[in-house]
Amino acid sequence: MISTKKQLPLGRLYLREVEGYVPGAQPCADAIKLNTNENPFPPSPKVMAALAGIPPRALQRYPDPLANEFRETVARLHRLDRDQVIATNGGDELLRLALTTFVDPGQSVGVVTPSYGVYSVMSAIHQAHLSCVPLTAEWGLAPDTAVRWNSDGAPLALITNPHAPSGALFSLATIDRLAAEFQGVLLIDEAYIDFVDPDLKHDATPLIAKHSNVVLLRTLSKGYGLAGLRLAYGLGQTCLIRPMLTKTKDSYNVDGVAQALGKAAILDQQYASASWKHVRQERIRLTRGLEDLRFQVAPTQTNFILTSPISDVCLDAVSLYQELQKHGIYVRWFDDDRLEGSLRISIGNIDENNALLSCIGKLIAS
To answer: What is the mean pLDDT of residues 109-130?
Structure first.
């Protein structure tokens, strides 16, 4: 029998117009993967020992819903109280929690452009409008950024520092002023903060005590080599953390294995710091190598570089991106007006970076 039941549209109607986030390609294991800003080093041996020591009961029972031991470890690292820390299933969950907690559908979310694509996708899903302020030609914050966000009534703004995809670092004075001028919650996504030159003494955690509207996002994906674990955390005054911790997060949002391994990673600062130092050293070497090949490289304080071939190089960015992929080297190209002439390249290990430079040199020569 043919059903005569009227078929209603499946899914929320406005989602038909939303374009989802497109992550970097996940090539085979033999490829040189420099397109998703992962740490070139594996996790700490102490993390692997903690993984080997996970008892069956840890999988049999629900985990601590508040991840208290992990939060205590993070709080000690940053000299904060545990109530000022929330553990999340990757940095993206903290972004979603901030939207759910601080933004009503129909309100605006402040961003700078270009920026991390997930910001716009999550805002669209939440039915929040974007209040976009373009960065300056030198990848700096426009002086009227907070004014424009306030004018649009944005209760939340999302900003990456160091910035992605440029790698630029906004100074503490700039972020301090932005927090003071902005009337909503300022979430500073510090996914790449571990790779900042320590000589700059850049530490935004004092802004938490100074401003009641600042939330810092930290992740273990980049600096601790745990992208596959999906573990991050947020820092802020208790009045901002508590509603996310007790009302809007999932009941068991961080699994027990992630909590144990995250604690082990945080406690092994010596190992993590060594990997950050390697990245900084290779960042300098890779920059010089690309400049020798007649590429422009934007100043960066991250574990990636944004680079573009100068006019007399025979290959443009998208052609070079395609040719590198044919040779098993994956970098990132963005189909964006301001970025289409550039490639974003993650800092790999010495062998990976050598292979990249060698391949680019041969492609140019041929």
So the answer is: 95
Reported as a single tens digit per residue, the pLDDT across 279-333 is 999 999 999 999 999 999 999 999 999 999 986 667 889 999 999 999 999 999 9
CB 192 within 8 A of CB 3: no
Q: Using CA atoms in the order 107, 112, 117, 121, what is the torsion angle rounded to 10 degrees?
A: 10
Which is it for strands 185-189 and 214-219: parallel, antiparallel or unpaired? parallel
Give the sign of the dihedral formed by CA 42, CA 47, CA 50, CA 56.
negative
Give me the residues paired with residue 181 across strands.
none
CA angle 188, 257, 25 (to 5 degrees): 60
The phi and psi torsions of 234 (rounded to 5 degrees) equal -115, 150
pLDDT of 4 higher than 80: no
Residues ≥6 apart with Cβ < 8 Å to 354: none
Q: Which of 192, 20, 181 is nearest to 110 (CA)?
A: 181
Q: Are the C-beta atoms of 34 and 356 separated by less than 8 Å?
A: yes
pLDDT at 96 over 70: yes
pLDDT tier for residue 17 given thresholds of 50, 70 and 90:
confident
Q: Select the CATH number that applies to the domain covering 45-267 from these four: 3.40.50.720, 3.40.640.10, 1.10.3720.10, 1.20.1600.10.
A: 3.40.640.10
Could you tell me the CATH superfamily of domain 24-42+270-365?
A: Aspartate Aminotransferase, domain 1 (3.90.1150.10)
174 neighbors 182 (Cβ within 8 angstroms): no
- Please give the model's pTM, rounded to 2 decimal places: 0.93
